[in-house]
Amino acid sequence: MAREVSSISRVGTSEPFELQVARGQISYHTVLFKYGYNPNIINVDETIWDAGGIYAYPASALAMTVTSASGATDAGVKVTLSGLDANYLDQTEEVTLNGSGTFTTTNTYRRVFRAFVSGATSPAGNITISNGGTTYAQITSGENQTLMAVYTVPAGKTLYINQGTATHGTDTSGAYMTIRFVTRESGGVFRTRTKIDVTGGEILFPFTYPIRLEEKTDIEVRAICNKNQINAVSATFEGVLIDNGSAL
Fold first, then answer.
1. Which of 11, 157, 160, 176, by CA, is between 20 and 30 Å from 211?
2. How far is CA 14 from CA 19, 98, 246, in A?
3. What are 174-187's pLDDT values in tens digits?
4. What is the pTM of this model?
């Protein structure tokens, strides 16, 4: 029997606004959730993402080469890239690794902020998305998705961040992590929007009044340890993208 998908608000009752956005029932609104993980942070500032170090951004739109560390073993693996084109518009592309375990995208990307395995076969090795020796995304073996607390607001949209989290793995040495939520407007420099210290636990930082981020703004989370020792750190941020000039 066919079932009709309908918001309960249509029959005189209420439903949380956030759920209606997630269901695609609110025009011009799109949910954003970003999650990053870095297992190897010491006393040097790093972006919270799979490949380590401070994340580098393309200076122009580039074709990306998708490569498996396991080479021909991963021939046929399908990977979907999500990012922005030369005009900072949303762009998604699925590629299939060839007989050598690699593939160069048809599209060019000004930003890449997510990639995931979209077929029925998991890769045996890490998959990198790169150009000219610079890695812009990495799918770590076993995850089947990038884990990068990195994002850029598409053209024609405004992002409202309403919450973030930061987690430091259990520690008994007295080490603490300094974690920063940083943003860079188009043509500007990165500036700190939130800065917190975490020792062996999780911190939730809700923004009762959401942080407004304009189109083309780069966003990431960074962390550094006060001691020269390896630490695992994760971070999330979430919010809603609203089309500029929309009626709502």
1. 176
2. 11, 50, 23
3. 889 999 999 999 99
4. 0.93
